[in-house]
Amino acid sequence: MSDAQAQIKETVDGNDVVLFMKGTSEMPQCGFSSRVAGVLNYMEVEYQDVNVLADEEIRQGIKDFSDWPTIPQLYVKGEFVGGCDIITEMTLSGELDTLLETNGVAFNKDAADKIRESNA
Amino acid sequence: MLEQIRSKLDAAFVPKVLEVRDDSEDHRGHAGYREGGNTHFSVKIRAAAFDGQSRVAQQRAIYAQLKQEFADGLHALALDVGGADAP
C-alpha cells in the first residue's frame, strides 16, 4: 500500500465521519464540496475535513481508494457513503439521518428536518 | 463529449430515459472549468439495469463506462439514476 493509501485508510478508520473535499469545511472551493459541507455543518455533524487540493497524492489517492472518480467523498465509520448527489438525495429522503443514528453519530435532527421542509 | 457520454450510456444500459446536459458554462470561472467547456455534465437515466442496486453501485456502474471521458478531462457528472420505474 502506498503512503497515500495508508494515510487515507488511517484517516477514514480513525474518524467517525470524514469528508474529502476541495477546500475546507470553513471555506469550500467547489460547489459540490460546498453543498455537502454545508449540509453537515448545518446538521451540526462533527467531521474531519480533508482538503484534497492541499495534497496531490491524496487528491488522486482517494479516487483510487474508493474507485470513485469525483470529489467530494463522504465516509462514515470507515465506509464510503457517496458523493454530492447521493448525500443530497439521502439528506432529503431521511436516509442520512438513519445512517448517522445507526452509527451513533450525533447530529441536530431539527436542522435536518428544516432542510427537508425548505426543499419540500 | 456530450454525444460520447450519451452513446456509451445508451449502449451499456439500454435506458428507458436518458437525458444528458452540458452544464460546463454554468461553472465558468470556477475550479475545474477549462476554456472550451466539456467539463461539467448532468445525466438523468432510468434503466432496468439499475433496479435493486444501491446508489453507490448505480453510480459506480456509470463511472465505469466513462473511465475514458474522466481521463480526457470530464470533471463533474451530476447523476440522477434510477431503475426502470423510478420517478
Automatic annotation (TrEMBL), chain A:
Keywords: 2Fe-2S, Iron, Iron-sulfur, Metal-binding, Redox-active center. The keyword Iron applies. Transmembrane segments: none annotated. [2Fe-2S] cluster binds at residue 30. Residues 17-81 form the Glutaredoxin domain. It comes from the Bacteria. One of its GO terms (molecular function) is disulfide oxidoreductase activity. Signal peptide: none annotated. Pfam families: Glutaredoxin. Belongs to the glutaredoxin family. Monothiol subfamily. This is Glutaredoxin. The lineage of its organism: Bacteria, Pseudomonadati, Pseudomonadota, Alphaproteobacteria, Rhodobacterales.
